[in-house]
Amino acid sequence: MKERFSKLLLGEDMSGGGKGVSTAAAISNAITNLYATVFGSCHRLEPLPVEKKSMWRREMDCLLSVCDYIVEFFPSKDILPDGTTREVMATRPRSDIYVNLPALEKLDDMLLEILDGFQKTEFWYLNDKAHKDSCDDSAPCRPASHRGEERWWLPVPCVTKSGLTEPARRDLRQKHDCASQIHKAAMAINNGILAEIKIPESYTQTLPKCGRASVGDAIYRGMSFPGKFSPEYLLDCLEISSEHEALEAADRVEAA
């Protein structure tokens, strides 16, 4: 535990040489890595394994415990034993943490509840041992979706020939709508926080002074070609061959 907190406070630079990232970035990276560990291989609509759920909550409580010490002062009154009062400066959680952190924790609990709701379903996945005998002559089944070669790692869901019953369809739609609302709420909180963050002038001065310098010549030529610009045309010009190149191109366009 001491080593973990030291790593966070030193910005992941255990040498203490001051070359690490900020504490906020270190915590953000730790949460991202934890998410990849717990949810990175969860490609099925099913309850999260007990050990992973326990790990997620335990580690998140540990990482977020630093928020208990991010406080702001406010004037308050203290009553002494003799009945007199005096003005003191008390502490409370910083306003953005006080408002947004409980909301995010509630959204997290709601997502886990949605996954817990998939204990008994009318669909299963190809090569699922629990339903290995479901695809026989008496109860024929069919894939509910066709997986492309570019997404070979995703499991293929299966349903019976008659498909899902109407109650099961309604339940899936309800869970889908609920998850969409959770995503929108989380994005709204995230965008609100980003809008409040002040961008240092020193960072602004380091940015390129024109869009062409940000996106590069290849993207600039594709975007500025007269009369032929379209997202499809731009992608054809770039000849992106990997996900890494796609993310790099998107980052350059966003920076511009």
Automatic annotation (TrEMBL):
Span of domain PRONE:
1-256
Alphabetically, the GO molecular function entries are: guanyl-nucleotide exchange factor activity
Keyword vocabulary terms for this entry: Guanine-nucleotide releasing factor
Pfam families according to UniProt: PRONE
Q: Which InterPro entries match?
A: PRONE_dom, RopGEF
What the entry lists under PROSITE patterns is as follows:
PRONE
Q: Which PANTHER family match?
A: ROP GUANINE NUCLEOTIDE EXCHANGE FACTOR 1, ROP GUANINE NUCLEOTIDE EXCHANGE FACTOR 2
What name does the UniProt record give this protein? PRONE domain-containing protein
> To which species is this protein native?
Triticum turgidum subsp. durum (Durum wheat)
